[in-house]
Amino acid sequence: MRFAFTDEQLAFRDAARDLLARECPPSYVRSAWTGDGVDARKVWFALAEMGVLGALLEASAVDVILVIEETGYAAVPEPVVEHAMVGVPLLPDIIDGQHTITASDDPKCVVPFADRADRFLLLVDKRLVLVGQQGVVALDNLESVDGARRSAIVDYSRVETQFSERETTQAFDRGALGTAAQLIGLTRRMLDMTVEYVKERQQFGVPIGSFQAVKHHLADARIALEFARPLVYRAAWTMSEGDPDASVHVSMAKAMAGNAALLTARKALQCHGAIGYSYEYDLHLFMKRAWALAAAWGDAAFHRASVGRAIL
Amino acid sequence: MNIAVFVKQIPDPALPGELDADHTLKREGKLVLDESDSYGVEMALQLVDKAGGGEVTLVSMAPNNEVSGLRTALAMGAAKAILISDDALAGSDALSTAKVLAKAVERAGEVDLVMAATESTDGYTGTTPAQVAELLGWPSLTFAKHVEIGDGKVTIQRQTEAGYDVVESSLPAVVSVTAGVVEPRYPSFKGIMAAKNKPVDEVKVTDLGLTAEQVGWAGARQQITNVEAAPARAAGEKIEDDGAAHEQVVAFLEKLKVI
C-alpha cells in the first residue's frame, strides 16, 4: 500500500502554490495591514474560483490540508481557515466567495478579518452561533499583533442559528486543524527566508550560515517542523476517516505546530539580527501571523491538556 | 471548433538540468507541463469556448508514458490527450518530432486548428510548429500574440520587433503563440479531480504508421558530437573619461545600432 498524498492532492497543492506565489507576495500581505490595496480581495476571489473555499463540501480534510498549509506559507490575509474549514461545512450555501464567513472561539467574540466578513460564527456558552450582517450592532476594532488580521470584537443583537454541541466540537477541531496546517506553512516560510538570508549575509568574510551556532538554530527549527508536520497530516487523515481519536490527533497537531512556529519565529529573528526587527523587512509579516495563530483555536497548553485528559 | 494543442512535458526547470552520456537531456524523473505550452492550452480553451462547441485535444511526445504534465493541462480543461511514448523515439531531432506530432494530429480526427508554443523551454529549437504545418500541408502562422477565429479563418497578430503584423489564413492551420497571448488559468479543484478520468490515448510509433527507422537516433538528421559549457563572459571595455569619452560611447552605441 502506498500511504502518501495522491497525485490529485499534490496537484491541488501545486496549483494553489503557483497562484499564491504570484498573487499573494509579501507586498500584498503588507497592503492588508493598511487596508489600502487596489485589489484588496483579489486573492480571496482567486481562491474561490480555484475551489479552495468550498472544497470541504466535496472533499475531505486530507484533500485540502496541503492547500491550507500553502495559504499559511503565503500568510494570506483572509479568513481562509475560518471560512473554508470552520464555516462552509456548517453553512454549505456560501462557497462562491461572494460571502465571507469569519469565526472564532474567543470568549469575548474577538474575530479576525472582521471588516471582510458578512457572516460571523461566535462561541457563546460553549456553542457556535451564527450572526448575520443584520445582527451586528458594531465592530470594535482592536489593535492586533498581526495588523493583516484586522481583529474586532463583534457586538451583536440577534443570533440566526445556534449549532449543536457536536457541530461545535467538530467545527472547533476543523479550525484547530486548519490553523495547525497554516502554522506549518508559516514555519516553512520563516525557515526558507532565514536559510536564504544566512547564505547571503556575510560576516568575517564568509556567509553567516557557515557558522555552526547559526546552523544549530536552523537545525532546531527544522526538527520542530518535521516533528509537527506528520502530526498535522495524520490528524487530517483520521478526521477524514471519521476516526474517534481524530480530536486528540488534532490537539497533538495544533500543540506541536504552534510550538514549531513559535520556536522558528524566534530562531529566524535571532539569525536575521537587527534587520529582522525592521518593519520594512518582511519577516515580521510571517512571525506575527505565527504568534496570532499559535494562540487561535486553542494554544499549545490547552491542546496538551486535552491530550492529557484523553490518555489518562 | 476542435483544437489540438502540442504540450511538452519537461524536467522541472527549477532544478538544474543534466545531460545523459549521449548528450541528450535527462528525462527520467517526474516531468512537468512546459509553462510556455500553458498559453496555447489557455488560448485553445478560450477559442473553443467562444466558438460554443468542440474540444481541446492535447498531443504530447514523452518518455516512460509520462502523464504528469498532461494531467495539469487536462485539469485546466482540455478534454482528452494523445500521448506518444516509445523507446524508439529517444534521440529524435526536431523534424522527427514534427513527423510524430503531425501523424498524431491526423489520429486526433477532425481538427480545425493546431496550437503550439513558439519554442519549448528545454529544447529551444523553435522549428517544430512550422515543420508540422509543412508535413500536414497546412498554413503556418507563428509568434501569435493574439488569435481570433471567424468565418472559417484564423487571424493573428504576429509579434514583430517593431509591433505586430496582422496575418490571416484559412483553416485548418498551425498557430504558434507567444507567452503574452493570454493569462493561463490555474487548475481548479474540480478540474483536477475531473482530469483523473479524462482519456489519454497512449500510442507507439507504429500505431501512427511510422517505423522506428524514421524517428529517434535512427531517423535523426543531426548528430550531437560534443557538448561544452558556454564560454565565460569576456570582460567589457573600460573607457577612461579624458573629456572625449562621450564620443566613444556614441560610437559604441552606433555600432550596436541602438542610436
Secondary-structure map with pairings?
The complex is a heterodimer of chains A (312) and B (259).
Chain A: H1 7-23, H2 26-34, H3 42-50, H4 55-58, H5 61-73, H6 80-87, E1 101-103, E2 110-111, E3 119-124, E4 127-132, E5 136-141, E6 152-156, E7 161-162, H7 165-200, E8 202-203, E9 206-207, H8 212-240, H9 246-272, H10 274-277, H11 283-295, H12 300-311
Helix pairs in contact in A: 1-3, 1-5, 5-7, 6-7, 7-8, 7-9, 7-11, 8-9, 9-11, 9-12
Chain B: E1 3-6, E2 9-11, E3 31-33, H1 35-51, E4 56-61, H2 68-76, E5 80-84, H3 94-107, E6 113-117, H4 128-136, E7 140-150, E8 153-159, E9 164-170, E10 173-177, H5 189-195, E11 200-203, H6 216-219, H7 245-255
Parallel strand pairs in B: 1-4, 1-6, 4-5, 5-11, 6-10, 7-10
Antiparallel strand pairs in B: 2-3, 7-8, 8-9
Helix pairs in contact in B: 2-5, 3-4
Q: If you had to describe this structure to a student in words, what would you say it looks like?
A:
The complex is a heterodimer of chains A (312) and B (259). Chain A has 312 residues and is an alpha+beta fold. Chain A has helices spanning 7-23, 26-34, 42-50, 55-58, 61-73, 80-87, 165-200, 212-240, 246-272, 274-277, 283-295, 300-311, and strands spanning 101-103, 110-111, 119-124, 127-132, 136-141, 152-156, 161-162, 202-203, 206-207. In chain A, helix 1 runs parallel beside helix 5, helix 7 packs antiparallel against helix 8 (212-240) and helix 7 runs antiparallel to helix 11. Chain A is globular, with a radius of gyration of 19 Å. Chain B has one domain (2-219): HUPs (Rossmann fold, 3-Layer(aba) Sandwich), CATH 3.40.50. Chain B has helices spanning 35-51, 68-76, 94-107, 128-136, 189-195, 216-219, 245-255, and strands at residues 3-6, 9-11, 31-33, 56-61, 80-84, 113-117, 140-150, 153-159, 164-170, 173-177, 200-203. In chain B, strand 8 (153-159) and strand 9 form a beta hairpin. The longest helix of chain B is centred in the N-terminal third of the chain and has 17 residues, at 35-51. Chain B starts with a strand and ends with a helix. Chains A and B meet through helix 1 and helix 3 of A and helix 2 and helix 5 of B.
